[in-house]
């Protein structure tokens, strides 16, 4: 059952207008800087701080997570959100994090 609760959290993070992580992503997509966005928030958007740990653990275990890596690149300022969006809309090979199986 823990997996279902985690899935519920993921869906809420993606879909809820109250989601702090979604708010950060939307604001990055509008071209605002991460510093500006976080400076205007009273609560923490956990994904901003945890994405680098997720990518690091994936690398240690030989797991490819292209979506998480792209999010890390946006959060770190390596790429713009608009460029990340274009890259993520291309087909992702089967067996990656976008694969429901």
Describe this protein's structure.
By secondary structure, this protein is an all-alpha fold. The chain is built from six helices and no strands. Helix 4 (46-60) crosses helix 5. The model has no long low-confidence stretch (mean pLDDT 81).
What average pLDDT do the residues reach? 81
Q: Return Rg in Å.
A: 14 Å
The tally of strands reads 0
Number of helices: 6
User: Major β-sheet, in short?
Assistant: none
Level of helix content? 55-70%
* Low-confidence residue ranges: none
* Shape by Cα distribution: globular
Q: What series of H and E elements makes up the topology?
A: HHHHHH
| Structural class estimated from helices and strands | mainly alpha
- Report the end-to-end length measured between terminal Cα atoms: 17 Å
Q: Into which percentage range does the β-strand content fall?
A: under 5%
Keywords:
63% helix, mainly alpha, 101 residues, 0% strand, single chain, 6 helices
Quick structural summary:
By secondary structure, the protein is mostly helical. Helix content is 63%, strand content 0%.
